[in-house]
Amino acid sequence: MALYHAHIKVLSRSDRNTVAALAYRSGTQLTEERTGEGFNFRNKSVEHVELLLPETSPQWAKDLQNLIEKNREKGVQKLSNIVESAEKRIDAQVYKDFEFSLPAELTVEQNKALLREFIQDQFCKRGITVLANFHNDCDVETGQKKPHCHAILLTRELAPDGLSKQKNREWNQTSLLGEWREQLAAYTNFHLQLHGYQARVDHRSYAEQGIEIEPQPKLSRSVQEMEGRIGHNAQGLKPEQYTDKAKDYQHIKLKNLYRIMKNPEVVFDIIHKSQATFMEGDIDKVLARYIDDPEVFRACQAKLKTSAELRLLRETEQGAVFTTKSMIKRELSLIDLAQSLSQTEGNKVSDQSIQNHVALYDKKYEKSGGLSSDQKRALEHLVQDKKLVAIVGYAGTGKSSILSCAQDIWQENGYAVYGLAPTGKAAQNLQNDGISSITLHKFLRQYHQGRNQFKSKSVLILDEAGMVDITRFEELFDASQKLGVKLVTVGDGKQLQPIEAGAAFRLVTKETGVATLETVIRQKQAWMKEATRNFGRGDTEKAIGSYLEKGRVILIDESIPDIQQLVAIKDYAGLVEAFNIAVRSQRLAGWTFRSDIELTPSERQIGGQKIGPWKGVEKEAGEAIANNIEHCRPHILAYKTDPYRIAESLTSDLDPAQQKLYAARMVHGWNIDSRGMQAWEFTCNPRQATMEALIKDWYQSIQAEPHKNHVLMAYTLNETEMLNKQARALRLQDGAIDKQSFTHQITRIDTDDFGDEVRTHKQRQFSKGDRLLFMKNDHGLGVRNGMVGTIEEINKTTLKVRLDAKEGEEGKIVSFASKLYPYVDLGWAINLNKQQGATNHKSFILASNHFHSNLTYVALTRHTEEASIYGTSQEFWTESVFAKQLAKGQEKLSSLDYIDSDQALKLARQESSIITEALEGVSNQLKAIHYTAKRSFTRWLGKEPTFEKIKVRETLTEAQRAHRLQDDSQIPLNSSLGTSEPPSSEPALSWKEMVADLEKKDMEKRILKSTGQTMEEYRALKNELYGISSHQNTSSPGPSWRDVLDQLVQPQRSISLSDQEATISLGGNSSEKVLDKMDYRPQFEKDVHNFTDRYNVYKKAESEGHTTEQDTLTLKKEAMALSKNENAMWYLEVRNPEMGQEIQRLAKDYNRHQALNRDSGLSR
């Protein structure tokens, strides 16, 4: 039964310690900065803590939000320091605590969604910053759940550099509390209704409500009877409602109706809460739950049937079975994560250790014959040096014995072993076997809170893996990857049912078999080595292509500044910076146009599209600066912004002569003193989003594997300095470096154009734990330019640094005074020129138009494990331009960008699709607003229409379908589904083969539509055409569906009579007639098969010496055209990967031929 309470209290220094109050509500240990007093409430169980911000929050607040998400305690401590420092009075009102209950009926995740939506809408949209503390308490005596939330409200608004100087007194209005209480009830009721619960809450007292029972979410019989007594209308509460329950129900129903009309695909999300696959009847059930108008019902049905999300899995006698694209992506994502982890080496044990413990356990169980051969094979599989292994342990096979033996082996080799399980009982079973265990939910919660003891020397055993759903598996794999632990997944064959959560485990086990894993590991090592060899051979573009194919090239879209918002909040510095970003962003795109690389028409078109929007931003920002010139004047000089460029942006419609004249007059009127300004640099960071993405991935990697070397790289000193600043800020927040900093002067030595030495002096802050880069050789000190170390001790004058050493060795310590050796800098990010000869575990590279093939070679060959390279899409429009730019020769000193035409076409289609979806979304929203407004108005008039009850089609549950699948004679199931027998010795299908299998079944469905035959008729015709007996051995290969289609001559049911009479005589015999066959195949498939036929003819002629140079060029030209067809290349990747690779090779040869022709033409 849902309970309601909501009240607000002021947390003031006059009656409590506000730091202690915050620590208690967040379940953390906090220290009061003013007094140094600590408050430890870690033993207080707090389910979730989250910082919720207004939409226009400054970057520092967003960074703080991310910190709280990653490390609750450090983030809340920082928040406390900021808030407490803003209050000066001894009796200051620091926070407000809005405590409210949450429905016990809802799950933890559902309650999180409820509190987020309520706080964001009711508080954050008013500009209030809230620290949400979700407590999932339980009464010890009664066992009753008492979930509730302490929403800690800040009393000051957020400012660019902290909190506002004045408190917002409008938030103290008494009426707001009443509004919040009322809205809380509405939001709670909505979420209860959304998740199908009957409970309701009301913010009013029972006396105010005039009823004696709890609110119900649905129209129960008692509600209908009450309506009947009052309004003499016991049929569905229409057109007028009298009770609060009925009114609340109608309000919520109308809100849900609006949501579904606005976005019909939310129905798929609702279905996926309980099942991964569904039938049309399942869609109808959800729609009927929220829609009573048959016309709207049918319209939503039609939209869902044509949704781009919907994917047909199979046709059955009972109807079609569907899933969604999102669900397929989640499953493939799970497989990708499994592949990644299973390909990673780690936690190796000695062979001697294995032999010794197998002998010990043989002796231990000698009465029963020792360990079985199955157990020994499973044991060898478990302890192999891979980060992910999986075993299927059936009942009575000695799973506990081999887990205990494996634990002994791991511990002897220096690894700690822990158990995980989806339930408390399963975790206790592992505990009884001597394996320290916790539930999977607790492990994931601690991981997300930044509280865990698991490192790369840990082994995690997940028991009952078949009970874990896809979402939890993804979270577990992600955590394992970041922590660097070894993960062993163990499942029971009884749980490998297609309708249960064990389906995720089945997907994983298909990728972690011994044979497959060995092969996959070798391929991983091979591609990196082959890429390095290609770099060495000078085939840079091919080497970059390997990293593109592996997803190691990340291109980021930079956000366009909101000029109106900057003006509204009077952020004049941000306004000038936005102007600079617009100018620099146009220059980034312009570099490529001015480069020597060959651009395709589509690439040029995309490049032009990159410049256009920023021209608009430049003009809009210029106008805003001109209108606020008094406020912007100091920032124009500070950001080194050319005032003439601002003026010219306002006079762009004039001819050049007039433009210069009017611009000069305008600048003179602005009274900007630019004397002493050497160059207009337009100070800004046009790669801000790209750097943030790079830093985020680097930080996650270094958090997961802190013992490894993770290096940030950039080309320019300015970029390196910005990356160092951001990286150091993150390491300060997580406590990796000491918070006490010391300022030292550093010196950088460069040479000018004339060879003269130029010394640049800067002040830099350093702390214990900082990475330090040495920038000058000093034999007495024993350091060389480019060496890196970690500061172990520091004070105002000296630094003590431990230098990096080879793996397994301890680096030496050097001490020096910064006044005597000032040639150091922060070493989190390093300039590429200093990376020659260096070796890192992982590299994170910021690409720019300064790159050329040699720099690319250095950047992408420093790592031993992984390398990722990041660029802005404003600078590198497509992957083809990216590759071309990074592969240009060293002698070409102009800056360039890189990406390929296939990706460009893909992006163009995505953009078109996004536009289409956006327009459709706007259309749906307008229709929803119009319809729900009309319904609200007619209900207010008491004239709401009545509708006939919607009939929902009968459908099978997912469990029923799973049972029938095993006996489905139309399309046989994979033998591993729904069986407790040991798996087949045949290799499991890969996910690509599974997709190909699904596609083949979809093709069979198309054939049926083309021939007009049912499945049984089709099979009978197939048998008749090829003389196959129904008793014949079905294991022998039969005719393909293409062969059957080619020989089917029965008239099409969809063809008109005149079409049926149209025949073709064969060999002059009019009695032998066939119909023109309908070509059901999509165009891309036709193109693939046509090219394959021509290719085979060409290869045969080539072997006989009958081909010409023109024949070869024509074939390559056709391959080039086909390589741009994304659907065709995906089809080939699944069906004929060898042909796909051959097409790419021919296309590349054609591009080279064209480039040579152009070069020779230019030389002439």
From TrEMBL:
InterPro entries xrefs: MobA_MobL, P-loop_NTPase, PIF1_helicase
Xref: Pfam families: AAA_30, MobA_MobL
SUPFAM superfamilies: P-loop containing nucleoside triphosphate hydrolases (SSF52540)
Region (Disordered): 961-988
Keyword Oxidoreductase: no
Coiled coil: none
Stretches assigned to the MobA/MobL protein domain: 16-229
Keywords: Conjugation
Bilayer-crossing regions: none
Keyword Iron assigned: no
Biased composition (Polar residues): 968-983
Record-stated family: Belongs to the MobA/MobL family.
Name of the protein in its database record: MobA/MobL protein domain-containing protein
Protein species of origin: Candidatus Odyssella acanthamoebae
Taxonomic lineage of the native organism: Bacteria, Pseudomonadati, Pseudomonadota, Alphaproteobacteria, Holosporales
